[in-house]
Each structure stands twice: as C-alpha cells, then as structure tokens.
Amino acid sequence: QALQHRLAAEKKKTMIAWTAAFVLWGTTASALKMSIAVFGATGLTGREVTHQALQQGYTVRALCREPSRLLKPRGSCGEAASTESLDDDKLFKFKGSVTTLSDVEKVFEAGDVEGVVVALGGKTSDVGKTMLEDGTTNIIECMNKYDVKRIAVVTSIGAGDSKDQAPFVFRILMSTVMSSIFQDKNNQEALFTAPAAPGADLEWTIVRPGGLTVEAPTKVINVIEGQAGSIARADVADFCLGAVVDPDFPYLRQCPCISSVGGTSWTKDRSARARESMAA
Fold first, then answer.
1. Using an 8 Å Cβ cutoff, are 118 and 136 in contact?
2. DSSP code of residue 137
3. C-alpha–C-alpha distance, residues 51 and 76, integer Å
4. In sequence order, what DSSP letters do the residues of 181-192 get, joined into one string?
5. DSSP assignment string, 211-238
6. Euclidean distance between CA atoms 278 and 273, whole angstroms
7. pLDDT of the residue at 175
8. Residue 60 · residue 92 · CB < 8 Å
9. CA–CA separation, 195 vs 237, rounded Å?
10. How do strand 264-265 and strand 91-95 relate by DSSP bridges?
11. pLDDT in tens, 9-41
C-alpha cells in the first residue's frame, strides 16, 4: 500500500511538471509567434516604429524600397547613430514596393504577423499621386487573406474630418501645394472609415499626428480635440505600437489626433469607465 501511495505521488509530480512545461511552452510559443509588419520602414517615423518594436522584443518584417536606407532613428538613438544601419536578428527586410501586391504579400507569407503599422510617405513626384491608397489597399487585401486584424495607419492632422484642427497656415498649404497628397491621405483613410470599406472590419486606428519632429521621445502623447501642436516621431511610433499590440487599446476604429501640446494625455487606464469616456 505504501508503494502504491509512493507511485501515485510520483505520477502526480510528473503530471504537474508536464503541465507546467506545457504552459511555459505555450506562453513562449505565443510570444515567439507575434511579429509586426511595418510599411514605410525607411521613413523617419517608420524607423522609429521598427526600432521600438525590436526594443520591445518583437520580430519585425519591413517592406522597403531600398533596405539600405533603414537606419537607426535619430530621436531614439541620437544624431551620432542616425547614419548607422538598423540591423537585428529579429528584423527581416523585404525589398519591394507597397503598390505591388506580390511584394506586400512576401511580408505576410511566414504567417506570424499579428499587427501592422503603415507609415508610408514620400514626395508625390517620387511615389505617385495614389501611392497611399493603392499601397494600403494591397495591405488590407493581404491582412484579410492571412487573418491579421490589428493595423495602425499614420496619416496627418488635417486629414479626413480633422481639417479644423490644423493650424491656419497649414490649412492653406493643404488646399494648394499639398492638395494632391491630402487627397491621397483622405482616400487612404476612407479604406477604413467609409461605408462597406475593405478595411472596415479590421481593428484599425487612424493616427493623425500634429507637426512632426525628430526629437527624443517625450512620452507625452495627448489625444486632442482642438488645434494640434508638435509631436516627436518617436512618440507617434509609441502610440502606433500600442494600437497594434495592446489588447485594450482605447482608440480602435477611431481617428485620434495626437500631439505633445494641449489636450488630455493618453493614459493607459483600462477601466471600463475610462474606455467609455474615450469613445464618447
């Protein structure tokens, strides 16, 4: 009888050990699975997103027209390091164009992408008048194909229904020399916000930053209703990563304007009351 008790005890210990190992493996596998796709990674904001995601331990899959231009961001890494290549064992660079569907799909083919940050930009004369809309259409198609839900899209203060939040001089530029790029930005946003839009069912956040700087991150991120001030690209990147990795991110399917000046600071209050007030 004593032998039976001892054998039962040993069996119980073994089962507990296997259960613990299984839980640990499951947690590790889940952490390893998560990767973030970045489009526009060689731009000033895209570099910040890529760098910060890597610093947080995520795998990053970045589509670049010229992978050699993916450098360390000045804001987070300092001016001296901003000419150095951004490299990491968890960083996978894909050469291609966001307007070519097969190039975009390469980023998703591994099957581990769970969040997407779109920080596309460039001169209209270089990238074309419809690059934002066309490229984001391709991204949405691939997200739907590979069952990826979370996406943060950086546009601008003044886009969509935020025109009155832009400074007066900027509004003049929007209707003159910047009219083409803002038409493209508005069409890009409509891919998520318009009735029956192709991205409407995704867990999207349209991020509209104020005047962008390349300063060090301030960690002050205000979601504002009035006129926008400036904000460091590093802080925009921080907000975008929250939008794609935070299970309780309070601005899903919204278009927050963000700035480091004015408004109410973005706080990670996860109470139901806070989320309801933010959605109001």
1. yes
2. H
3. 8
4. HHHHHHHHHHHH
5. EEE-SPP----EEESS---EEEHHHHHH
6. 9
7. 72
8. yes
9. 28
10. unpaired
11. 554 544 444 333 333 334 333 444 489 999 999
Q: Any idea how long the chain is?
A: 280
- The label of the residue with tokens 């060689």 reads 42
How high is the pLDDT of residue 273?
36
pLDDT at 213 over 50: yes
pLDDT of 174 reads 65
Q: At what angle do helices 131-145 and 101-108 cross, to 10 degrees?
A: 40
In the chain, the amino acid numbered 253 is R
Give the CA distances from residue 9 to residues 4, 17, 23, in Å, rounded to whole numbers and listed in that order: 9, 12, 21
Kindly report the pTM of this predicted structure.
Answer: 0.81
| Cα separation, 37 vs 45, whole angstroms | 14
Q: CB count, 10 Å around CB of 34?
A: 16
> What gap in Å lies between CA 118 and CA 140, rounded to an integer?
11
Predicted confidence (pLDDT) at residue 195 exceeds the cutoff of 70: yes
> Do the beta carbons of residue 158 and residue 210 sit within 8 Å?
no
Burial status of residue 5 (CB atoms within 10 A of its CB: 0-12, 13-18, 19 or more) = exposed
What's at 279, amino acid-wise?
A
> 224, 268, 263, 276: which is closest to 249 by C-alpha?
268
With a cut of 70, say whether residue 169 has pLDDT above it. Answer: no
Question: What is the Cα–Cα distance from 17 to 1, expressed in whole angstroms?
Answer: 24
In DSSP terms, which residues pair with 150 in a beta bridge? 115, 203
Helix (H) or strand (E) holding 222: strand 222-224
- Give every CB contact of residue 12 below 8 A, 6+ residues apart in sequence: none
